[in-house]
Amino acid sequence: xxxxxxxxxxxxxxxxDKHLPKHIGIIMDGNxxxxxxRGLPRAEGHRRGVEALRRTLKYASELGVQFMTIYxxxxxxxxxxxxxxxxxxxxxxxxxxxxxxxxxSKNVRIKIIGSQENLPSxxxxxxxEARTLTSSNTGTTLVVAFNYxxxxxxxxxxxxxxxxxxxxxxxxDAISENTLTNFLDTHDIPDPDLIxxxxxEMRLSNFLMWQAAYSEFxxxxxxxxxxxxxxxxxxxxxxxxxxxxxxxxxxxx
Length: 253
Ligand code: IPE
Ligand code: IPE
Ligand code: MG
Description:
Elements: E1 23-27, H1 31-37, H2 42-63, E2 67-74, H3 82-105, E3 109-113, H4 121-134, E4 141-148, H5 150-166, H6 177-183, E5 194-197, E6 216-219, H7 229-241
Parallel strand pairs: 1-2, 1-5, 2-4, 3-4, 5-6
Bound molecules: 3-methylbut-3-enyl trihydrogen diphosphate (2 copies) and magnesium ion.
Residues 28-33, 73, 77, 88, 199 line the site of one 3-methylbut-3-enyl trihydrogen diphosphate.
């Protein structure tokens, strides 16, 4: 049964707050703890995490979610041991090589956010291939946050703004919130409506800080490799019950 077939959660067009999230951001956390609890290497947790990603993307698409951003590798994850970093790079390589054709056939559009700095050149090429092959697709957009951190993203945006000012292309007095928004990696992606983090941690860890200004947050204790349809449905149900006020008074005032 799809979410929209559950009567009590049916979207109510007269109340704009109750519709499905257009954009869900996911901080996929807990792979290491999942593996440790089973006496397995952390790499196995990450491998099973990719499977959780495949099914979650499928469920999100079936629900009609238009954008799903996944936090796959943060700008701080370079602090991990070299062999874990290699495992994570290897998994991304395999994911793109193995899944790209199928994602493309399912009309999924892939976008990448994050810095290219320090990434192996074959990864940069693969990410580019994934983006260009799927750029005209009209189904769910999978945004892969890879080597991504909000502070890094905002810093890069400021650097570019400063260059444009220096070259006389931009008047500092004309810089608005929109100007900065347009310099971010996410310039062509709407802000996330709902941010989900698994594994019980309640922090943003440098994920979409600017973009999450008015996002709703859902923290789930489940470890990411165990994430399943019910978890996503619970988070979406939670979202549909929120009243988003954006600083105003809302409908119940
Ligand atoms: C999330 O799982 C995956 C990445 C950060 C790439 P972790 O590897 O952070 O798992 P825990 O938090 O150690 O359990
Ligand atoms: C956030 O998880 C990054 C990703 C999920 C890719 P971490 O496990 O790296 O975050 P912290 O270190 O617990 O804050
Ligand atoms: Mg973690």
